[in-house]
Amino acid sequence: MSTSSTALPLPSERSRVAFRVLGAISASHLINDMMQSLILAIYPILKGDFQLSFVQIGLITLTYQLTASLFQPLVGLYTDRRPTPYSLPVGMTSTLCGLLLLAYAPNFATVLVAAAFVGMGSAIFHPESSRVARMASGGRHGLAQSLFQVGGNTGSAIGPLVAAAVIVPFGQRSVAWFALAALLGIVLLLQVGRWYAHHHVAAAARAARRPAANPLPRNAVVVAIGVLLLLIFSKYFYIAGISSFYLFYVMEKFGLSVQNAQLHLFIFLFASALGTLVGGPVGDRIGRKPVIWVSILGVAPFALMLPHANLFWTTALTIVIGFILSSAFSAIVVYAQELIPGKVGMVSGLFFGFAFGMGGLGAAVLGLLADHTSIDFVYHVIAYLPLLGVVAVLLPNITRPALLASVPAGSR
Fold this sequence. Notes:
Layout lengths: L13 H28 L1 H8 L3 H28 L5 H17 L4 H28 L5 H30 L8 H31 L8 H37 L3 H29 L1 H10 L2 H6 L5 H29 L4 H29 L2 H8 L17 H6 L7
């Protein structure tokens, strides 16, 4: 890899570093999550080719999300102790292998193995890339986390459009073409890894001079983390019902074609990307707790109306739901990082991993429910999940001085 002027800048170039590094890590997140979303987007093809039930569809989601869920906290815990900048391209390589395996999978079992490779790639990618985003934030942690997250959400939104344009007309093997995007991601992450390797030296020196201090007593931190995990459960069980089964829902209820249904899924996911971009910066200004409160509980009325809506209002409601609900995650992750300072990788891995796990478990459970009832019934059941957002009232307020204590002096 060349280290010429085209490489990412070094930490001394503080006026340029943050946004170039955040842009690179966000673009890598876009590629990573686009490749993940290809699995969701080609479910109708896999269902037809391999004669899959809804339970088996849910098991595919469960496999890659549970793999990511189990390994992300372990990766984060390890890298808190021994940061490994060049693990980022390794994670993307795992996703690349999963994608190629998916393209040529001859049976359902091979599809599950491919999904596991994709899950492992995410497990390696997310904790360290979240750390990079925080290191490049200049103290604006919510903004940095949102910029990082919006890349992933945009990638998830692009997936259905790409599937409609390429995979539906040309079939399962056309998935292999997206190996080119993975190779681009590997190149970007090699550059990010170079920046990270140089920047970590300065960051470690600052951390040694200013040990991290917990802003709250241990018991309060434990309760707050439990509340945040319950909110993640509510959010991602609900999202599992939308992302895994929305294609089938609009096809069965409104008679849409596969390509039209994928366009509607894109609309929902694009609205989610916009919401992600808003949540972090707003949290920087008014605090994380109000954003978390509004984004989970605030979506409840719209979720309750969705199963009773016609096609026009289904589209409109999913836009609102995606926008509001997605604003929570950046605020939740940064809030948790502030609760447990000095453990960015472990916290990021825990919350990304738990989110993946709940999404996968939700897909499997809701798939089983759909097989025994109907997709429409599933949408009536999950409509009540956002009401769990009321537990956000139990979150403690973290005072501004406590937050500033965890920001490196050079970033203020």
